[in-house]
Amino acid sequence: MSLPGSPAAAPESDGGRRFRTTSLQRRLAQRIGFVWLSLMAIATVVPIALVVVYIVQQGGPAISWTFLSGFPSDGMRQGGILPAIVGTFYLTLGTALFSVPLGVAAAVYLAEYAQENALTRLIRVAIINLAGIPSVVYGLFGLGLFVLFLRLGTSILSASLTLSIMTLPVIISAAEEALRAVPQAFRTVSVSLGGSRWQTIARIVLPQAVPGILTGVILGLERAAGETAPILFTGAAFFLPRLPNSPLDSTMALPYHLFVISTQVPGMPLQIQYGTALVLIVFVLGMNLTATVIRSRARARRQW
Amino acid sequence: MNGEAGTPAARGQAAGRRPRRDWGEAIITRLIQLSGYSAVVFVGLIFFFLVREGLPALIEVPLRDLFGTRWYPIEGYFGVVPLLTGSLVVTGGAMAIAVPFGIGTAMFISEIAPRWAREVLKPLVELLGGLPSVVLGFLGILILSPYLRQLLDLPTGLTALAGSLLLGGIALPTIVSIAEDALDAVPRSYRDAALALGATPWQTMWGVTLPAARSGVLTAVLLGMGRAIGETMAVMMVTGNAPVLAVRLASIVSPVRTMTATIAAEMGEVASGSPHYHALFFIGMLLFVISLLVNVIASAVVFRQRSRAERVLS
To answer: Is the pLDDT of residue B86 over 90?
Structure first.
């Protein structure tokens, strides 16, 4: 066990003759404590690994070309899940389309323009609160604003807009952190060479912050791709025999499809359920992995 | 806004091109500023729409019924109390699991684990944070609840307990990740001082590091709780969906229904504008207010800690 501040190892090695009893007790307490905490950590981490391994094991055999590229048939008990895969892809893309420009611009405002005043504090409180609003409440909001008030109907557009507002706080926070990490000297040099504020941001600061922003964007979209509650009443379809061909169509989506086939359809073959779960976690964890790789690569290559 | 940045440019060769660039610059500045305000606008919009669709419930449903103990929409009973208690029971159970395990794991990762284990453990825990809740709910139906039914000899495994176990798992990554950050941020000198005074690492962890990080750890717990209260799909899938008043001890092992699950399960089937529709939005309003409170308290804790730290440092 390499501990921060190894002087603590000293009393252990020389036995602490003068304080033998207390030292023994303390060492025993520490041993037991360390073992106990290790067990807790194991109890936390092992189930995660098990969940992933189990789904891969059970869902693996279901994966085939027909499963990935076919349409559901026989009340979804046979065939593939193509419409759900394509739907989740469209929803993620739509979410990115709205939330990335808005989120990055908001982060630029907070990191580069905003002064520390009451308004900025209000914005920060609002971001924290957006991050904490339950996903199903986003669903209600999307239903009220996009579906009914703006008459966009239950559509990819409504669902994407709803998801992008939910994703916004994640992107803003990550992008702001990435922008703030760019050393002040970069800005000073750019301005001293005659660059305007926007030129400095667009050509110097943003490019330096891209890996950090990208990581945040992917993690935000990952959450959007896996969410069910916000799209329940804004764009998800129970079953569609074709692919959506306009942003105003409703769509099937992987998480909602998994919910449907595991709770609403009796006599659903287990293999298809596990297969769908597997495709969903590959989609989502693949994004997570991409973000992790980008982050660690950027860290290794960074020169400041 | 662009005064300080524009002046040096004016003296340079680019002076002739300045007017056009300034126009663009002004527009871009304005757009960025508006985007910056967007978060406030969205919170306002969300609140406005929830109130607009939710408040009519107060008129259409007699107050005594709305805060009554029966939720039976078909016969016009819209009592939110059973749903509130359902949410409380499931969330309480989840926190009873997630808080000790979350803080224990954070302590292990931050204070005990060797460096390589830390590099593996934290991303792994955050990976669970990324697992869609519908996947956990799916496994909850297929594996967890049959197992609980057998283990505890229950008529059904779809109970508050199953929901609590899943929600605990969902709140854990939030708690571990934020609490670990807080522990990690405690200055090395605090630990060194305690160790130099003869404390064991174990005593240092509990007597010095954890108290020093307490506000961050409290924030972690609050945000984890916020996630648990707001979680929808996993809870809806495994809690059995029975809107009964959950006040007895046995409620833990009987089916319940949370606020979030009620909205998700019923909103698809109601006519917009009906009392039922308004009642569901009213529940959404309650959820919004609860999450607002949790977050305001969590950030107040952080702000207070920060100002205290500033006082100490100055």
So the answer is: no
A227 to B132: CB separation less than 8 angstroms, yes or no: yes
Instruction: Tell me if A281 and B131 make a contact (CB, 8 A cut-off).
Output: yes
CB-CB: which of B105, B267, B294 is closest to A41? B105
Check if CATH label 2.160.10.10 holds for domain A79-301: no
Kindly state the tokens that stand for B153.
């000899």
Indicate which of B7, B108, B165, B286 best probes the interface with A, i.e. most A CBs within 10 Å of its own CB.
Answer: B108
Q: How many CB atoms lie within 10 A of CB B66?
A: 17
d(CA A244, CA A66): 19
> Tell me, what's the pLDDT at B76?
77
The number of beta carbons lying within 10 Å of the beta carbon of residue B191 is 22
Chain B residues close to A125, C-beta within 8 Å: 296, 299
Residues in chain B: 314
CA pair distance A265, A242, nearest whole angstrom: 20
Angle of helix B214-230 relative to helix A135-142, nearest 10 degrees, comes to: 50
Using CB atoms within 10 Å of the CB of residue B145, give its burial: 0 to 12 exposed, 13 to 18 middle, 19+ buried: buried
Closest alpha carbon to B132 in A101, A262, A265, A175: A262
Question: Would you state the pLDDT for residue B14?
Answer: 45
Q: Residue B309: which pLDDT band, with cuts at 50, 70 and 90?
A: low
Domain boundaries, chain B: 3-54, 63-313
In which element (H, E) is residue A78 found? strand A78-79
Q: How far apart are the C-alpha atoms of B232 and B134, rounded to whole Å?
A: 9
Mean pLDDT over A82-101 rounds to 92
Architecture (CATH level 2) of domain B63-313: Orthogonal Bundle (1.10)
- For residue range B164-223, list pLDDT tens digits in order: 999 998 899 889 988 988 888 888 888 888 889 888 888 888 888 888 888 888 888 988
**Could you tell me the two tokens for B248?**
């007895």
Q: Which residues contact A36 (CB under 8 A, 6 or more apart)?
A: B104
3-state secondary structure of A267: coil
- Provide the whole-model pTM: 0.85
pLDDT digits (tens, 9 = 90+) for A252-299: 889 999 998 888 888 788 888 899 999 999 999 888 888 888 888 887
